[in-house]
Design a protein that fits this description.
Blueprint lengths: L5 H42 L6 H10 L5 H8 L3 H30 L3 H9 L6 H28 L1
Length: 156
């Protein structure tokens, strides 16, 4: 004897698929938020070489289109042809959600990327905490690789 008849089973499957899809969309938004912050951080770092006043740099950054795929390609080396359509939709959606928090916290925490993740991305959804932890884990892993490479280079 089945717990649910066929109609109910299909309805439950659709509800589960919708929940999974919504969770995936939220998580993708969290990951995009992290990438937007990394982009901001890269631009600030680059502009500090030309301009000594951080306020001017931040004002200029707030005026540019952060969802410009060519800007992302410049800083992250993405293949624009592969990501443009999905990227633009997701970036615009995410930027619309986080724009106020960027303006609110960028002046306070422009030099601390982890604080920006917490202040800007975490309010999107608690799921973002997992994405932030993954990002920090990846960063620590990359630092370890760079350290080993540096030590090996010194040895040679």
């Amino acid at each position: 004897m089945d717990l649910f008849d066929n109609k109910e089973r299909t309805k439950i499957k659709n509800e589960i698929y919708d929940m999974i899809n919504e969770t995936h969309k939220t998580y993708a938004c969290c990951k995009t938020c992290i990438k937007i912050i990394q982009l901001l951080y890269q631009i600030i770092k680059q502009e500090k070489k030309k301009e000594k006043y951080i306020d001017i740099i931040i004002e200029d950054i707030l005026e540019i289109n952060l969802c410009n795929p060519y800007l992302w390609n410049k800083h992250f080396y993405y293949n624009i042809a592969l990501y443009t359509e999905y990227f633009l939709d997701n970036c615009k959606y995410t930027l619309n959600i986080i724009k106020d928090n960027i303006e609110k916290y960028i002046y306070k925490s422009y030099n601390n990327q982890n604080d920006l993740y917490i202040y800007i991305c975490l309010p999107i959804n608690p799921i973002c905490k997992t994405a932030i932890m993954e990002q920090q884990k990846d960063l620590n892993h990359n630092i370890n690789i760079q350290t080993v490479f540096f030590m090996y280079s010194q040895y040679l």
